[in-house]
TrEMBL record, chain A:
Highest taxon of source: Eukaryota
PROSITE patterns xref list: WNT1
Predominant place of localization: secreted
GO-annotated biological processes: canonical Wnt signaling pathway; cell fate commitment; neuron differentiation
Keyword Signal included in the entry's annotation: yes
Cited function: Ligand for members of the frizzled family of seven transmembrane receptors.
Location within or outside the cell: Secreted, Extracellular space, Extracellular matrix
The protein's name: Protein Wnt
Signal peptide per UniProt: 1-20
Entry GO CC: extracellular space
One term of GO molecular function: cytokine activity
Keywords tagged on the record: Developmental protein, Disulfide bond, Extracellular matrix, Glycoprotein, Lipoprotein, Secreted, Signal, Wnt signaling pathway
TrEMBL record, chain B:
Domain annotation Wntless-like transmembrane: ranges: 229-499
Residue ranges constituting the Wntless GOLD domain according to the UniProt record: 49-228
Recorded topology in the membrane: Multi-pass membrane protein
Pfam families assigned to the protein according to its UniProt record, in alphabetical order: WLS-like_TM, WLS_GOLD
Residues in the signal sequence: none
Gene that produces this protein: LOC100368939
Subcellular location: Golgi apparatus membrane
Keywords per UniProt: Developmental protein, Golgi apparatus, Membrane, Transmembrane, Transmembrane helix, Wnt signaling pathway
Comp. bias intervals (Polar residues): 507-519
Protein's name in the database: Protein wntless homolog
Family indicated by similarity: Belongs to the wntless family.
Chain intervals for the UniProt region annotation (Disordered): 506-550
């Protein structure tokens, strides 16, 4: 009875979130709606009624919906992964003119994604990285029914494999599943080789891979010796995921050094400037130059920097001069109330005082 | 009647034996490299954060991460603040293994390593010399038990020292970056007898006792579970079951040959017998019992058995070299080798005491580790250093002895031209075959060292193409294990007293082509027929006896 109630609650949640589908939809949307899946995962055993829920999820392509049917328990980690990707993007770009802000509607990042720019490259990479991270973590938490055991994506004889050789590498599993899921959208309908879409598809696939590779390459190998008398004749190693903030930093550096590419007649992608080395699987690539994001322009998805906070003393991108694109800024004083002199235990605050302070704020004209 | 088999064996037969042994050796390596999976698997678990709502205060309550009786969980500890959950309410919980698997008795043992993620916060940094105090309960359940029916294996309070570094400036901008903390030993179970295990960890905060106050911002606890792979265990058991009867048969055969002689056995023969017996002790596949009986001390027994074999092997080398020193001293007594044997026994005892301190105590508390306290660490290091000193002393002794053997051999060689033709050939053959055996021993030792280094340097798996992988670690274990079995087998067979009556072959010596080492079918014979010599156990003893007369 209780479970039934949960199902009904779930139906309700998903129906209310169903909106009309548009062209710019993306699975990133799952990241904005991750609370839906929290309920989903709580239902536990997944019955036939959940099957149909996959069809109603917004943002999934046809193939992704099929994967949703097969791996229902993976959907919550995917949504948290997408969410952490978006959050990390907003952290990394909080001091830039384009600050990775999401907009209401289907496309998550708005029309920014219509240009094959560096920013698009970064968002693809960071969200793919977020999903690898989240799937691997969910594997470790035991949230997923079968992961990491066999070399094949879907283990057929799980228990025999487990008994014979163990199921170790869930970072690798996260990588493989993400490749399947995230790249699905690009691989579904392959545009003609000469078309512009083909180049964009290649670019997206490359950047997805760069994001996944970043998580994989930043994972630490750790080992434990456990031979006779603690000697190192027996050594077992495993992969430890890096902090996602570090992955974000790494991808931000890749964003700054992203390579501009173009598409040749045979449909291959080539560097614009052939003096440089070809981009590796770890590098981000883009096709079109970015707009300057100074003024509001719905066609490019630029929100403009009017009303953004800036730092008066900084010489960087967050400095008022660059952030406001030379338009100048207004200064005013604001009283801020924050928690201070807190006493912490390892997880939680115990007691805090409230402190008031007055700060100068600078806002772009 | 008295020569060792090695001396009386034709070159062709010797080569044939070597080839057969080499084939076995290759088979042992291939068994591990191709059939067996890697010896162990590490499965990293991320603990679920259960919340103790205090509903079941009156009884032992297990916090189960998932399933029918799953606890209330929070995903992120950041959420604890909003939900007004305090540190003492949080229980870190994992079930081993993850769904839908279950443990198997083939896994033999479970080790776990703890890896804590701590984030920096400028108002709540990690204190100096932080120690984490944990209340741990370990439970188990078997297939067929009711889903929530967990039985307690142990409940204990443990401390672990955290060793963490932070490579960023300690400013508010570095908040939420994590410390790099060394993984810590967590638990060692010497048997994997049950199907499911459950670990609950609490990190209680007691302000007045100053417990767990300076832990920083604890984010996650990872528990890495390591066990021997079932496939590897199967291959290993099969290997042991295969070699044990062979070695037993060979040892019995050897000793019956010795007993058939109408004289007392000599030290060399007794040593070889002891070596054979120690290998039988090591080989005996008593591990089969673990499949039906819970034997938590099996790891300890395996360590002791290995220790017995290796100390016996080291003693054998010393005595082997000593008994072939062609000088005038009368040996044949164990007391002559007291310095070397003492070094071996002392070193092994040190390692044994260390092992008892670690694995012995773990029998009663699997969460104990000698490495976690400073005194324990120093004590463990002291034991290991003393054992290391003993080992290096031993090897200096051994090298010196082998050097003296070779020096005496070269002295004998210069004296060779002056000897009678037959005796000359006899000495040449002896020296050649002694050197052959030295070479064999060194080869085995070198192979062990080389393979050990390869497995340490390598990631443990070599890829051939897409599908084929070779498990270097498994190949190392089965190969080296097989190699020492072959080694002892060869010693038992080649150093057993020979049955052949030398007088029958007297004519061969006279008729054969005797120019140096190019002889193929040539059987090396004793040339002397005086009856006193039949009491001598081996040709080399004879030789030393002869030199004494010279």
């Amino acid at each position: 009875m209780y479970r039934m109630a949960r199902y009904i609650e779930l139906f309700f949640l998903i129906f209310t979130s169903v909106q009309s589908l548009s062209q710019g939809q993306s699975w990133w949307l799952l990241g904005l709606k991750s609370h839906v899946f929290q309920t989903w995962s709580k239902v536990g055993i997944i019955g036939p009624s959940i099957q149909s829920l996959c069809n109603q999820l917004e943002g999934l392509s046809q193939g992704q919906t099929k994967l949703c049917h097969l791996y229902q328990d993976h959907m919550y980690p995917i949504s948290t992964g997408a969410k952490s990707g978006i959050e990390e993007c907003q952290y990394q770009f909080s001091e830039r003119r384009w600050n990775c802000s999401t907009v209401d509607g289907q496309s998550v990042f708005g029309n920014v994604m219509t240009i094959a720019s560096r920013e698009k490259a970064f968002t693809y990479a960071i969200s793919a990285a977020g999903v690898v991270n989240a799937i691997s973590r969910a594997c470790r938490e035991g949230e997923l029914a079968n992961c990491g055991c066999s070399r094949a994506l879907r283990p057929t004889d799980l228990n025999r494999d487990w008994l014979w050789g163990g199921c170790g590498d869930n970072v690798d599993y996260g990588y493989r599943f993400t490749k399947e899921f995230v790249d699905m959208k690009e691989n579904e309908r392959i545009p003609p080789k000469a078309s512009a879409e083909h180049g964009i598809m290649k670019m997206n696939l490359h950047n997805n891979e760069a994001g996944r590779k970043a998580v994989l390459s930043m994972a630490d190998v750790m080992c434990k010796c456990h031979g006779v008398s603690g000697s190192c004749s027996m050594k077992t190693c495993w992969l430890q995921l890096a902090n996602f903030r570090d992955v974000g930093n790494e991808l931000k550096e890749r964003y700054d050094g992203a390579a501009e590419i173009r598409r040749n007649r045979r449909g291959e992608i080539k560097l614009v400037d052939s003096r440089f080395n070809n981009p590796t699987a770890f590098d981000l690539v883009y096709l079109d130059p970015s707009p300057d994001y100074c003024i509001y322009d719905p066609s490019t998805g630029s929100l403009g920097t009017v009303g953004r906070l800036c730092n008066k003393t900084s010489m960087g991108m967050d400095g008022c001069n660059l952030m406001c694109c030379g338009r100048g800024y207004n200064t005013f004083q604001q009283e801020v109330v924050e928690r201070c002199h807190c006493k912490f235990h390892w997880c939680c605050y115990v007691k805090c005082k409230r402190c008031k302070k007055i700060v100068d704020m600078h806002i772009c004209k | 009647m008295a020569g060792a088999v090695l001396e009386n064996l034709s070159t062709r037969k010797l080569i044939a034996l070597c080839v057969v042994l080499l084939l076995f050796q290759a088979a042992f390596f291939m068994l591990g490299g191709i059939i067996a999976p890697s010896p162990t698997t590490a499965y990293p678990h991320l603990t679920n954060k259960c919340v103790d709502t205090g509903k079941h205060r009156h009884k032992q309550q297990w916090f189960i991460p998932w399933g029918e009786f799953a606890c209330e969980k929070i995903v992120d500890l950041e959420d604890a603040i909003e939900q007004e959950i305090v540190a003492n309410q949080i229980v870190f919980s994992i079930e081993i293994p993850n769904r839908p698997n279950k443990m198997s008795r083939w896994f033999q043992y479970i080790l776990t390593v703890m890896d804590i993620t701590i984030a920096y916060h400028n108002e709540n940094p990690l204190g100096p010399d932080p120690v984490i105090t944990m209340e741990i309960s370990l439970g188990y359940r078997n297939e067929g038990d009711a889903p929530g029916d967990w039985k307690e294996l142990i409940k204990t309070t443990e401390e672990r020292k955290l060793e963490c570094t932070f490579d960023r400036p300690l400013i508010p901008e570095s908040n939420d970056y994590t410390y790099h903390c060394d993984p810590m030993p967590f638990m060692e179970l010497g048997s994997c007898h049950h199907d499911y295990y459950l670990i609950n960890i609490r990190v209680p905060v007691h302000e007045h006792k100053d417990i767990n106050l300076d832990l920083g911002k604890l984010q996650d606890i990872h528990i890495i579970e390591i066990h021997q792979n079932g496939g590897f265990t199967k291959v290993w058991f099969a290997l042991k079951t295969f070699v044990t009867p062979l070695i037993i048969m060979m040892t019995i055969w050897f000793w019956r040959r010795v007993c058939a002689l109408n004289r007392q056995s000599v030290l060399m023969e007794r040593t070889i017998l002891a070596l054979g017996i120690s290998l039988i002790i090591l080989d005996l596949p008593i591990e089969w019992l673990t499949l039906s009986v819970d034997i938590p001390f099996m790891l300890l027994i395996s360590d002791i058995r290995q220790g017995i074999f290796y100390s016996m092997l080291l003693s054998f080398w010393i005595i082997f070299a000593g008994e072939h020193l062609m000088d005038q001293t009368e040996r044949n007594r164990l007391s002559v080798y007291w310095t070397q044997v003492t070094a071996i026994v002392f070193g092994c005892t040190c390692l044994f005491v260390f092992d008892m301190c670690e694995r012995g105590v773990q029998l009663s508390n699997p969460f104990y580790s000698i490495w976690i306290t400073d005194t324990g660490k120093n004590l463990a290091m002291a034991f290991i250093i003393v054992a290391g000193i003993c080992a290096s002393l031993y090897f200096m002794f051994l090298c010196y002895m082998v050097y003296r053997v070779f020096r005496n051999i070269s002295v004998k060689k210069t004296a060779l031209p002056a000897m009678a033709k037959a005796r000359q050939l006899h000495y040449q053959g002896l020296i050649y075959r002694f050197k052959f055996f030295m070479f064999f021993t060194l080869l085995c030792a070198a192979m062990t060292v080389i393979f050990f280094i390869i497995t340490q340097v390598n990631e443990g798996r070599w890829k051939w193409g897409e599908e084929h992988t070779v498990e270097v670690n498994s190949a190392f274990f089965t190969g080296v294990y097989g190699m020492w079995n072959i080694y002892v087998f060869a010693v038992l067979s080649l150093y057993a007293p020979s049955h052949k009556d030398p007088r029958k072959y007297e004519s061969t010596v006279q008729n054969g082509d005797v120019s140096g080492s190019s002889n193929e079918e040539y059987e090396l014979r004793r040339t002397l027929t005086d009856s006193a010599a039949t009491e001598e156990p081996s040709e080399l003893y004879r030789m030393t006896g002869k030199t004494a007369q010279d």
